[in-house]
C-alpha cells in the first residue's frame, strides 16, 4: 500500500514509484513541491515530493489505496539530525554521482579515443600507446571530483524514520462533504482528471484526459445551495468563457440529498 507522509498537517508523497503509480493508475495529479531543476531538455521542472490536497487524500483513503503516516521527528521546525549519518549520506551521494560521471566520461573517451591519442602525439605529450585501456583508466583517475555542482534527488526517502499511523481528518463540514462528493463523482464515475481550480476562481478543474495533454473542460464551483446569478457569478462565467471552459456549479439538493450540477443560464462556453 502507498504511504502518504503527513508533515505539519500537509500530505506528501516522497517515493517516485508511488508518485508514478498514483498518476498513471489512479489519475491523481497533486502538485510537485520539491526544488526546481532542469531536465535533459533544459526546461525548468519541479521535483518530488508531491503535495496532495485534502480531498485527494480523503478520496484515496476511502478507496483503500493509501495509508497516512507521520514521523514524530518531522513535526518539529528543527528536527534533530544525526550529523555522522547525515555526512555519510551526503558523501555517498557525491560518490554515486562521481561514479556515474566517470561512466559517462569513459563512453566519451572510447568514442573519440583515436582522435585524442593523435592530438596528444602531435603536442608531444605522449609516445606510442600500446595499452589503450590503461590510457583510458589513467584519464579517469584524473577525475577526483565533479567538474560542476549537481543535486541528486532520492527516489525514496533516505532517512530511516520511525513512521506512525496518522488518522487523516474525514470530511465534516457541508463544504468539505460537497467537495468530496464532487471529486468522487467526477473521478470515480465520470473518469475525469481533477486538479485545483484556484487559478480560475473555482474549486476544481476537470480534464477529459491527462492534464499534460488536455485542456480543462470544466471549472467546478462547489456552492452550498443553488444561488441566483449575481455580479460575482457573472464575472466568473465570463472568465470561464474567455478561457474556453464551462463553468459548472455543484450543489446538493436540500430535499433529496442528491448531487446536482448546473451551468449558469446564458453563460455556456
Automatic annotation (TrEMBL):
GO cellular component, one term: nucleus
All copies of domain TSEN34 N-terminal, residue ranges: 2-70
Name of the molecule in the record: tRNA-intron lyase
GO biological process: one example: tRNA-type intron splice site recognition and cleavage
Domain annotation tRNA intron endonuclease catalytic: ranges: 178-257
Family to which this protein belongs: Belongs to the tRNA-intron endonuclease family.
Record-linked InterPro entries: tRNA_endonuc-like_dom_sf, tRNA_intron_Endo_cat-like_sf, tRNA_intron_Endonuc_cat-like, TSEN34_N
EC number(s) reported in the record: 4.6.1.16
Entry annotated with the keyword Lyase: yes
GO MF annotation: an example: nucleic acid binding
Catalytic activity annotation: pretRNA = a 3'-half-tRNA molecule with a 5'-OH end + a 5'-half-tRNA molecule with a 2',3'-cyclic phosphate end + an intron with a 2',3'-cyclic phosphate and a 5'-hydroxyl terminus
Keywords: Endonuclease, Hydrolase, Lyase, Nuclease, tRNA processing
Membrane-traversing stretches: none
Amino acid at each position: 500500500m502507498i504511504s502518504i507522509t503527513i508533515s505539519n498537517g500537509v500530505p506528501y508523497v516522497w517515493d517516485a514509484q508511488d508518485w508514478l503509480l498514483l498518476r498513471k493508475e489512479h489519475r491523481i495529479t497533486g502538485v510537485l513541491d520539491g526544488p526546481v531543476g532542469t531536465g535533459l531538455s533544459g526546461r525548468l521542472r519541479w521535483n518530488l515530493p508531491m503535495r496532495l490536497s485534502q480531498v485527494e487524500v480523503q478520496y484515496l483513503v476511502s478507496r483503500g489505496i493509501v495509508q497516512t503516516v507521520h514521523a514524530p521527528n518531522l513535526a518539529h521546525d528543527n528536527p534533530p539530525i544525526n550529523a555522522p549519518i547525515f555526512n555519510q549520506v551526503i558523501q555517498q551521494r557525491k560518490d554515486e554521482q562521481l561514479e556515474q560521471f566517470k561512466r559517462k566520461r569513459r563512453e566519451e573517451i572510447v568514442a573519440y579515443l583515436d582522435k585524442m591519442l593523435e592530438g596528444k602525439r602531435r603536442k608531444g605529450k605522449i609516445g606510442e600507446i600500446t595499452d589503450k585501456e590503461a590510457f583510458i583508466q589513467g584519464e579517469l583517475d584524473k577525475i577526483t571530483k565533479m567538474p560542476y555542482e549537481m543535486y541528486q534527488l532520492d527516489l525514496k526517502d533516505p532517512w530511516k524514520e520511525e513512521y506512525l499511523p496518522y488518522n487523516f481528518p474525514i470530511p465534516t463540514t457541508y463544504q468539505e462533504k460537497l467537495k468530496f462528493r464532487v471529486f468522487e463523482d467526477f473521478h470515480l464515475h465520470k473518469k475525469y482528471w481533477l486538479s485545483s481550480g484556484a487559478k480560475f476562481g473555482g474549486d476544481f478543474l476537470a480534464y477529459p484526459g491527462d492534464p499534460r495533454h488536455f485542456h480543462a473542460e470544466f471549472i467546478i464551483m462547489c456552492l452550498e445551495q443553488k444561488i441566483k446569478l449575481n455580479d460575482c457569478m457573472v464575472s466568473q462565467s465570463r472568465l470561464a468563457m474567455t478561457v474556453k471552459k464551462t463553468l459548472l456549479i455543484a450543489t446538493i439538493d436540500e430535499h433529496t440529498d442528491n448531487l446536482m450540477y448546473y451551468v449558469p443560464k446564458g453563460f455556456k462556453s
